[in-house]
């Protein structure tokens, strides 16, 4: 079977690997669609802190069941999506239902080989029927669930002022689900094309371009109070540190981004505002179900999928997804 491997940063190769043999309790999937995530781009560029090479990338996937264990609720031919955070089920986090931050987590495409391949064997607990959505939609559930999880973790409510800093796909997901909760959402980014997408396609109420005077614009938009909830989805340590300034008194700051750096902030300002600081990692089954419901109700625009390529073309074309001029929001690989 065709498998695309990231050998070292910047190097992708097409290999012919044997089909996997599913172990007891595993489902054999025919991979059909794989969403390309910022994590995949970071793996390709050598900026993913939890990874060793070589690695088969890809954790946003949908497919068709080829073989399921006896007695499983899944059957050959079922269209499915995969929850790619393989949690242990017994650690301190899992016992609290916080499987997204499992002590022993194995993320497909990061800690173990992922879905840039034709067939994949996955424990059946992490394979779910994709009822009522298309293969393309099912391949986009995971990144949207990360945004939905962050919004749920922040307990965003109707009438709150929300700022999303960084409007890549994860930031866009946070915008979408904050808006669905009735918040007034502002997007902050350096890219005019991304900001236009957020207002035109996702319904963000306002957008501000990073640069001179941006903080003053944010102040005007909030009557100098700033934001009840601020989400950082930049993946940039300096931006993450700067974001503390945009949090209102009694507000909440949510770091969706993860970077291989120390993050510092002004303790007097932090205490003066009694800021709540939250990390948001991955997503849970509840968040995946939230996304699926939003898709079925027509709240997730198809325009999020801007680019496509075949699995065989990934080694030659993957680098093009890094070009800001290409206008990539979400690329989908067809297997």
TrEMBL record:
SMART domains xref list: PKS_ER
Family annotation (SUPFAM superfamilies): GroES-like (SSF50129), NAD(P)-binding Rossmann-fold domains (SSF51735)
A Pfam family annotated for this UniProt entry: ADH_zinc_N
Domain Enoyl reductase (ER): 7-333
GO molecular function: oxidoreductase activity
Gene3D superfamilies in the cross-refs: Medium-chain alcohol dehydrogenases, catalytic domain, NAD(P)-binding Rossmann-like Domain
Keywords assigned by UniProt, alphabetized: Oxidoreductase
PANTHER family with a match to the protein in the record: L-GALACTONATE-5-DEHYDROGENASE, L-THREONINE 3-DEHYDROGENASE
Protein name per UniProt: Dehydrogenase
């Amino acid at each position: 079977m065709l498998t695309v491997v990231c050998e070292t940063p910047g190097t992708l190769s097409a290999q012919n690997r044997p089909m996997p043999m599913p172990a007891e309790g595993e489902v054999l999937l025919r991979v059909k669609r794989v969403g390309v995530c910022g994590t995949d781009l970071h793996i390709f560029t050598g900026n993913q802190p939890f990874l060793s090479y070589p690695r088969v990338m890809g954790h946003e996937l949908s497919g068709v069941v080829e073989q399921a264990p006896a007695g499983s609720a899944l059957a050959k031919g079922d269209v499915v999506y995969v929850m790619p955070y393989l949690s242990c089920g017994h650690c301190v986090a899992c016992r609290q239902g916080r499987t997204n931050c499992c002590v022993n987590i194995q993320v497909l495409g990061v800690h173990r080989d992922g879905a840039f391949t034709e067939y994949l064997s996955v424990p059946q607990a992490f394979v779910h029927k994709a009822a009522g959505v298309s293969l393309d939609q099912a391949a986009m559930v995971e990144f949207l669930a990360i945004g939905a999880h962050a919004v749920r973790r922040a307990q965003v409510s109707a009438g709150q002022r929300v700022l999303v800093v960084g409007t890549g796909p994860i930031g866009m997901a946070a915008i979408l689900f904050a808006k669905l909760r009735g918040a007034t959402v502002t997007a902050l980014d350096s890219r005019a094309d991304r900001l236009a997408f957020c207002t035109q396609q996702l319904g963000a109420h306002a957008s501000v371009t990073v640069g001179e005077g941006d903080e003053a614009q944010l102040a005007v938009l909030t009557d100098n109070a700033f934001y009840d909830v601020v989400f950082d989805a930049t993946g940039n340590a300096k931006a993450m540190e700067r974001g503390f300034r945009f949090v209102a008194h009694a507000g909440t700051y949510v770091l969706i981004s993860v970077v291989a750096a120390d993050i510092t902030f002004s303790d007097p300002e932090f205490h003066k505002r009694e800021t709540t600081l939250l990390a948001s990692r991955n997503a849970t089954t509840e968040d995946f179900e939230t996304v699926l419901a939003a898709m079925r109700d027509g709240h997730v625009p198809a325009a999020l999928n801007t680019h496509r390529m075949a699995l065989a073309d990934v080694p030659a074309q993957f680098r093009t997804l890094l070009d800001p001029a290409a206008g990539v929001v979400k690329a989908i690989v067809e297997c």
